[in-house]
């Protein structure tokens, strides 16, 4: 994603965060795009510096974090917000293996993503060791309704990796800006969660809210630069 598109997608992260599938699909479009325009103007102002709007922003706003990251790093970048801690951080690519990119902070907390879909985490505590998501992924990228099974892997207190298979329902939602909302509702073995994605016509996922683990909960992810 180019720089200009990155700031616009930021508001979509906030729109996805904390929403049920009904709330996501019933989002008022005029309000959404009005807020998108405001997010764009705020981020552009902060990057230029000296602007009154930039001065009014808090130093650690998501817009500021994104602007600093884009200015400092020419490579692929994401903005990630961990809901359980309230922390928002920029992450840069430090490696890629078989289409899975590792995005990390300077203290080596990392998210593993395959074209925007979460396949693992590192250094967060209570991490998602790995996720087999191909069944859901195919439907999500195609923006098609259907059923799929995904398996999440977690390391137990004994150091052993254990699978958590869940059944998921994929439901396309309303159009939003550069893409269409898709909801993935999963349940199994006492666990229930709902992932929300903004999916482009080419199957890209510039913005999402995805579940990590029972302890960590959800992370919102925005692709700042692909």
Describe the structure.
By secondary structure, the chain is α+β, with helices and mostly antiparallel strands. The protein has a single domain (3-225), classed as YmcC-like (YmcC-like fold), CATH 2.40.360. 28% of the residues lie in helices and 43% in strands. The chain has a 12-stranded antiparallel β-sheet. A hairpin with a 5-residue loop joins strand 7 (146-155) and strand 8 (161-176). The termini are close together. Mean pLDDT is 81; it is low at 1-14, 17-48 and 50-58.
- Total beta-strand segments: 12
The strands making up the biggest β-sheet line up spatially as: 5-4-3-2-1-12-11-10-9-8-7-6
Beta-strand fraction estimate: 35-45%
Q: Main beta sheet: strand number and arrangement? A: 12 strands, antiparallel
Mean pLDDT, all residues: 81
Residue share in helices?
25-40%
Structural class: alpha+beta
Termini separation (Å)? 5 Å
Secondary structure tally, helices: 6
Order of helices and strands: HHHHHEEEEEEHEEEEEE
- What would CATH call the architecture? Beta Barrel
């Amino acid at each position: 994603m180019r720089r200009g598109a990155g700031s616009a997608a930021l508001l979509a992260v906030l729109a996805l965060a904390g929403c049920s599938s009904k709330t996501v699909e019933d989002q008022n479009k005029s309000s959404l795009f009005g807020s998108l325009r405001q997010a764009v103007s705020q981020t552009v102002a902060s990057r230029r510096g000296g602007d009154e709007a930039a001065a009014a922003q808090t130093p650690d706003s998501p817009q500021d974090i994104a602007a600093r990251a884009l200015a400092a790093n020419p490579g692929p970048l994401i903005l990630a917000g961990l809901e359980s801690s309230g922390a928002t951080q920029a992450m840069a690519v430090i490696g890629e293996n078989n289409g899975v990119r590792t995005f990390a902070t300077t203290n080596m907390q990392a998210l593993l993503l395959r074209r925007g879909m979460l396949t693992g985490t590192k250094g967060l505590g209570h991490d998602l060791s790995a996720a087999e998501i191909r069944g859901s992924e195919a439907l999500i990228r195609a923006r098609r309704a259907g059923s799929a099974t995904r398996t999440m892997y977690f390391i137990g207190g004994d150091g052993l990796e254990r699978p958590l298979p869940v059944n998921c329902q994929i439901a396309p939602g309303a159009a939003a800006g550069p893409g269409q909302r898709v909801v993935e509702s999963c349940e199994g073995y006492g666990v229930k969660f709902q992932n929300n994605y903004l999916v482009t016509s080419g199957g890209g996922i510039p913005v999402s809210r995805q579940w990590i683990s029972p302890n960590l909960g959800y992370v919102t992810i925005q692709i700042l630069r692909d």
